[in-house]
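This week, look over our next protein:
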Amino acid sequence: MKRFRLASFAIVATLALAGCNSKDTPKEGEVAEGKPIAAIPAPEGQAWSDVASFTPEGGVVEGNPNAPIKLVEYASHTCSHCAEFSENASEALRTKYVDSGRVSYEIRNQIHDPIDLTFAVLARCAGPEAFHALAEQGWGNLKPMFDAVNANSGAMEAAMKAQGPARFDGIAQGAGLYDFFAQRGISRDQAKACLAKTDTATKIAADSDKQSSELDVTGTPWFFINGASVGTQTWQTLEPMIQRAGAR
């Protein structure tokens, strides 16, 4: 059963702003210790953080595609803990680790509610190169987004009852997402066209359900380092694990 179908409008904002549930997570010692890895130069005229692509798992990876350390985050666009991680980690992760060529950073969606799914679709509208920046800015805009949701409660209730493109259109309008993305170069017409392709949303939701079940991802933000699950972490606890893996 799709997680985004379980969340009603009445509880979406409360659950998102309260954080995301998860079970106890592995300890740092479970990350295999690697030898120090030298920096790997990016292609001429580029930084590794400029390099991005969609992955077979439905995520978006940023950085050296052949990086020896592969960091994967399962994240929700409406999760306050993901927003906190992004605020604390984004700049250091990009400049110290991704741009060194040692680490690639992939974000995969774990969908928690219809607003989350709508944002996930819109964040892909401008291609993989824009995704990480849009996700980061979206987490920075989490409170204003939910202020808009609460201010437009009637329209949001109606959107939740709609089906197909009408549902996503109503959510994007009520949550202020059309304006948010327009300010970042994705016009309303472009955003509407993205949301009208409902197969994108269907695939994102299916990938979320399948991978969460198969990989036992029970909360967000949830991390894997070189395929090893290290569970939910803060930047303060995750950075030493990345260093232990060889990014030092």
User: Anything to note?
Assistant: The chain has one domain: 3-17+25-244. Confidence is low (pLDDT under 50) at residues 1-11, 13-19, 23-29. The radius of gyration is 18 Å. The longest strand covers residues 69-75.
